[in-house]
Amino acid sequence: MAENLKYNALDIEKKWQEIWAKNGEFEPKDDYSLPKKYILSMFPYPSGRIHMGHVRNYSIGDAIARYYRTQGFNVLHPIGFDSFGMPAENAAIKNKIHPRIWTYENIDYMTKELRTLGLSFSKRRELATSDPIYTKWEQSFFIKMFKEGLVYRKSAIVNWCEHDQTVLANEQVEEGCCWRCGNEVVQRELPGYYFKITQYADELLNDLKTLEGKWPSQVLTMQENWIGKSFGLEFKFYLDDDSKKILGDKFDGFEVFTTRPDTIYGVTYTALAPEHAIVKALLDGNTLDEDKKSKIKSILNQSPRERQASEKDGVFLGIYVTHPLTNEKIPVWVANFILADYGSGAIMSVPAHDQRDFDFASAFDLPIVSVIKTEENNGEIMRPKATGDYGVSINSPLINGLSSEEAKMAMIEKFEELKLGKRVVNFKLRDWGISRQRYWGAPIPIVHCPKCGVVAEDEKNLPVALPDDVEITGEGNPLDKHPTWKHTKCPKCGCDAIRETDTMDTFVQSSWYFARYASDERTWNDTALDKKGVDYWMNVDQYIGGIEHAILHLLYARFFQKVLRDLGYMRDDEPFKNLLTQGMVLKDGKKMSKSKGNVVDPDDIINKYGADTARLFILFAAPPQKELEWNDSAVEGAYRFLNRLWDRAQSIKPCDKIPAIEHAGLNKEEKYARLKVYEALAKSRDVFTQSFTFNTLIAACMEALNAINAQDNDEVSAEGFFIILNLLEPIVPHIACELSDKLFGRKNFGEIEILDEVFVKDTIKLAVTINGKKRAEFEMSANSSESEVLKEAKEQTAKWLEGKEIIKEIYVKGKLVNLVIKG
Ligand code: ANZ
Ligand code: ZN
């Protein structure tokens, strides 16, 4: 190679990006008999620019994809844009630019930025979810789901973001605030469309087990809790005669749900959600005084979050029910901690054993009766903490002495036998509300016909495309205000009808994009999903993305996978076989973000040092699952390492195969260099396929380079370089391709054998014990004779031997010297 050539990252990177693109090196192969790997990093929203979080996400995915290619796999590694959604409309309002133009300009710009990172994405499978063809197939899924009863329309209390002027799904409300803008969410009654995700609740829960060890356990737990399955008894409390008179014949009682039927003898009051129909009836009647009515109304005006944050509060409703087992008269209250949409919106209260019931009873001086004996409470009432523990039933005639589990089952059986109630399973999961009152989304393909009602659009009319000529003001839905767009014909009867003007939640698009990528792009116009391609490529072998999607996207995508499976499009039960959640990129201890003003622009780093330095730094600074603290001097360090690699390569002798080396004939430094090189190689499989601790592999390569530099055997150096360049290629592909092309004609390490001889140590470690006590440890050449070993052992333990007589010397070969002394 030419002497003294300086490392010029930008030229090399441009050159290799062109070569890769020209050769189509990253396109998936048509040969479906090859072993495959589908490596996917979550696709970006086209916000305008790439940020360091993207660089991290894509560097990780790219390293894995490139590794599998070197190992002979057919690799699918696609990219696209999640390009519908609010920010485009907000930009339209602010900058008077059409959402479509804003979106596609951003896509162009970000695609160029991504290209400068040297990511090995398939070009042919690029997509944007706002493309009309994507909308077409999504609407087709919607229609099929509608016909299967997996989509339905209802009017319900929904989460409404005043700032974004739209409805949000439960999953999109984070601690009472909008996931996108952070403003407090309010409740509103609105009609909308719902995906019946609850129909899959059990399967979504059970299949989490198949992901154990493959997804972060934290994500699995979050999903499990979100789905929130619980099993218990539902039964009816009947109103007593006086209360029935108050309520008229509309009500004779109400259902409650309990997971602890074993505590039923401890019930001292019952409580209803303020939204409960009985409460409504009493608010309309005249038995409650104005004070009570206004208190109930003020609770009704609070959001669930406000209620949760307040003290336990409520009022006695002046009515009673009869305890089903004791016939006691039990008062009925309304309470601010009862959720209207869980169970039946009413509970039996057991203050001795439920903390919320206890706090409420304490606030209003209601009786407390203990019905469980545990080691902790010895059967007494505990204050101020209720005991929800399992123990043994007391004060409970039918179940005294039974364990809580036995008592629970016994009570359920008893209630079923008496036809007073039944066993039920309840889920916290709610159906997914997908209606958004915004323009920049996929129109819901429904027509409202005065004769036929809610009718699905005919598939042959798809896509129901967005009109371009809209006025976007931020107030009201632009589709609703458009003068002509919504007027159409009913697909069933042909009469004048009105289009639905809501669009779909953007999370619908991200729920199936991975399957679309798996479809051969040559079929994209003709089918939603190409069965052959999808059956071959799905599911995703390795998915990489942020933990913020632990529930949202990752739950919706799992649901959609199952729906598409049931509609006959796909085979797998789960979309993502393995999941890696990457940590955040921080600067000065805080998340890098525009609002905090601590952003480092990836473009600046790439222009100054090159993409390889950016990638190397990102993968070296921390294991991918951990937070990564930005560090300018570590970026410099990464750059210096690449320079060292480059400079040393200039004196490597080119060759076309790994030189055969006689290991035994090498000197100590040469052997050590080979050891370090092969140690790095031996590590690589686990790093690229399991642990993803790229930092440890990079460190091993750095050590190996140092060891190569500490000897001067040309063959050892060439072999070392061949291996190191292959190991580094997935991480710093440009410099690795450039050097390995010059030196070896770009061969890859799929072909490299891990040689055992290199790991044979030529020293042994020996322990010395004196009268059975370990006193020293030392290393010696493996060829040393017994007398040499004993001599060294005595020197190492001289201070214990001084003035003592050795009566026995035992050498356990290769392991131990035992000296026995007198006195
Ligand atoms: C009596 C009882 C005694 C209860 C006890 C718990 C412990 P999970 O596990 O989350 O399903 N509950 C039922 N419906 C409710 C609603 N709409 N709003 C608020 N709380 C409600 O919780 C089920 C338990 O939460 C039920 O079991 C009920 O209180 C309460 F020692 O009944 B339990
Ligand atoms: Zn009609």
Automatic annotation (TrEMBL):
A motif ('KMSKS' region) lies at residues 591-595. It is found in: Cytoplasm. The keyword Ligase applies. ATP binds at K594. PROSITE patterns: AA_TRNA_LIGASE_I (PS00178). It comes from the Bacteria. It catalyses: tRNA(Leu) + L-leucine + ATP = L-leucyl-tRNA(Leu) + AMP + diphosphate. Its EC number is 6.1.1.4. A motif ('HIGH' region) lies at residues 44-54. It holds the Pfam family tRNA-synt_1g. GO terms for cellular component: cytosol. GO terms for molecular function: aminoacyl-tRNA deacylase activity; ATP binding; leucine-tRNA ligase activity. Residues 38-184, 575-634 form the Methionyl/Leucyl tRNA synthetase domain. One of its GO terms (biological process) is leucyl-tRNA aminoacylation. PANTHER family: LEUCINE--TRNA LIGASE, MITOCHONDRIAL (PTHR43740:SF2), LEUCYL-TRNA SYNTHETASE (PTHR43740). Belongs to the class-I aminoacyl-tRNA synthetase family. This is Leucine--tRNA ligase. The gene is leuS.
